[in-house]
Amino acid sequence: MQYGPVVRRRKLGAELRALRTSAGITSGEAARLVGWHQSKVSRIETGTSGAKPADVRSLLDAYGVDDAQLRELLVMLAGTEEPGGRNHWWHAYRGVLPPTYRDFISLESQASAMRTLETTVVPGLLQTPEYARAVTRAAVDGLPEERLDTLVEVRLARQDVLRAEPPLELSAVLDEAVLRREVGGPEVMARQLDRLVEAARLPHVRLRVLPFAAGAHIGVTGPFVIFSFSNTSDLDVVVLDHLTSSLHLERKEDLEAYTEAFNALLFHALSPEDSSDFIAATAAGA
């Protein structure tokens, strides 16, 4: 387990090394092409040191990489703090958001697919404004209203990934407790459940309910998120949230274990159609 920034450096370095090798260029030749010392190329490729966005672009130019989506993804992994960028809107909130949350948003914004198990609350990408406010207020005791407003604003801005072109493919398994826990009061919860029913109709959103009747399951160990990227599976990562930090798992065996766990949850969960009916019935008070 590693913290996000370390994982990103390692993944970025590995991908740049693979691209250099595919281009038939040695590390020494790469250094000469971009005007660096060879040791800098080596440090970036091993993840020993970070790379600036401009460094990544220079290397990609040298390797003849013109895939716009891949270039954007690798620049994102460099952890750019460039303000005002179309895909880096969250940097405007860097004085409010902790680095681990910004790191999570950056992965979410560039991922092509997201698989998640939620055992307590509705996924952030599907929360209504009122629900998001109630959850945030409960999670951070004594939060000033101004900062609460900002955090809710960020939560809602994140949902743009579901309206992007192409949109993020979201597959979520929701424990029944998520639907039963009355967050923000009856009216807020009713609107939130209606929102889930609406979201389930979207072609790129698949919701599966794991009913109490399923009994104990592998997800009792806690929620998790698996991010996948269209360019390369080597960048896939599992994110585990804790109270004060997030941990990222990127080893092949970790990804396989959590993928198998998610598939096992799908086996025990209701079908998408039955899940939608279940959510609607819960909203109706059945």
Automatic annotation (TrEMBL):
Entry-linked SUPFAM superfamilies: lambda repressor-like DNA-binding domains
The species this protein was found in: Streptomyces mutabilis
Domain HTH cro/C1-type stretches: 16-70
Protein name: XRE family transcriptional regulator
Gene Ontology MF terms: DNA binding
